[in-house]
Amino acid sequence: MRPDTPAENVDHTAEAARLERTAGLYPEDAEALLLRAAAHLELSGDRPAATTLYDRLLSTPGTLENPSLVRALKAANLWEYGHEAEARAIIEGIRTTAPRDPGPWLIVAESLESHDELDAAEDTFTEAARLLLPDTQETPLPLHPLLHGRHRVRRMRGLPHDDWDTLADTLHTGPVPLDELHDPKRVWSLGSDNPAELQAEISRLRAELGTYREALSRPFPVAVLHWPAPELAELLSAYPALATEYPSHEAHLATIESSLRELSSSGTANLGIVTGTVPSYEAFAASEATSPDDPTLLPQYATTLASRGRAVAWPPGAGAGCWCGSEKAYEGCHGV
User: Fold this and answer.
1) What distance lies between CA 43 and its chain's CA centroid?
2) Which of 117, 189, 214, 283 is 20 to 30 A from 310 via CA?
3) What's the average model confidence in pLDDT over 266-291?
4) Neighbours of 188 (CB within 10 A)
5) SS3 per-residue string spanning 209-265
């Protein structure tokens, strides 16, 4: 489906089937492709079929990059077609396991909010903020929706601002302030016969849509290529010419961290790390009709992996494991 295809012209069922077929051809990208297929099935109204896809993914949790995200999507979908008890059980399980990724928290909280569970939604947003927000001054971009959602729910509940609400206001870049966007009285204006009130609401909605479009239009991360130790050993054994790029695995890891810090200090945002495998790299080289021992192919391979959604955001969130694969927290490993 082209990005500029109008939503009303999309055959969601056919698009879901196409994505399922593509997932069979590219098993390394199956998780992302099947999640998109499930989203199309939800949009088509076939929510049971979407649940079947989520169950298919969860049948092999060890192969998933983000099983908590899949469970959260499944819970939100189940609740929409009458399986409230099962959805609540999944949501409670996600909150208990406390994932270090903001995605599952956001989906769960917004699902609670959409079913008028405002107290539980606020508690969920707050749990996520307490767990994931770093102690540093800068708030990572993936955490902004959590703070904005928390602000929205607290506004709906008529609660006074606290420090995190103030932070959400600071992070918001739209022309309409969050307090106005999240004003409960906006709902009343939609039923008004006053043209001025309707025009004001149209302006607010356009501003909100602009914010969403800006978020969706962000390019994939600027990603640096990471080779785990076994993969790097296999790569250098097969292609010794690349040894000049990777004198040792320790030097490789140090170069990744220093490169990312240099990019960050120069003002480059949306940074990430992609993990390579030798079979995937060889397949990419074949698709480019280039020998794998050509070092100029490495950054192209990294960019391709990032464009497929394989990048992990850098730096990791507070308390998250280090990107290098050690069992240490990032702050005690390469984040020192």
Assistant:
1) 20
2) 214
3) 86
4) 11
5) HHHHHHHHCCCCCEEEEECCHHHHHHHHHHCHHHHHCCCCHHHHHHHHHHHHHHHHH
Tokens linked to 260: 């990312």
Sign of CA dihedral 41, 46, 52, 54: positive
Q: By the 8 A CB rule, do 329 and 317 touch?
A: no
Residue 189 confidence (pLDDT): 59
| Cα–Cα distances in angstroms (integers) from residue 281 to residues 29, 220, 296, 298, 336, in the given order | 14, 19, 13, 8, 31
End-to-end CA gap in the chain: 44
Distance (Å, whole) CA 324 – CA 315: 12
Identify the band that residue 309 occupies on the pLDDT scale cut at 50, 70 and 90. Answer: confident
Instruction: For the full predicted model, state whether its pTM sits above 0.85.
Output: no
Joined tokens for residue 99: 């994932």
pLDDT band at 148 (very low <50, low <70, confident <90, very high): very high
CA dist., res. 336 & res. 329, Å (int):
10
pLDDT digits (tens, 9 = 90+) for 74-116: 999 999 999 999 999 999 999 999 998 899 999 999 999 999 8
pLDDT of 3 strictly over 50 = no
Q: What are the angstrom distances between the C-alpha of 16 and each of 23, 36, 53, 79, 141?
A: 11, 7, 10, 21, 30
Q: Looking at the DSSP assignment, which residues form a beta bridge with residue 223?
A: 272
Contacts of 299 (CB under 8 A, 6+ apart): 225
Residue 330 DSSP one-character state: G
Q: What is the DSSP track for 135-197? A: SSSPPPGGGHHHHHHHHHHHHHTTPPP-HHHHHHHHH--SSS-HHHHT-THHHHHTT---HHH
What does the pLDDT average to over 293-316? 86
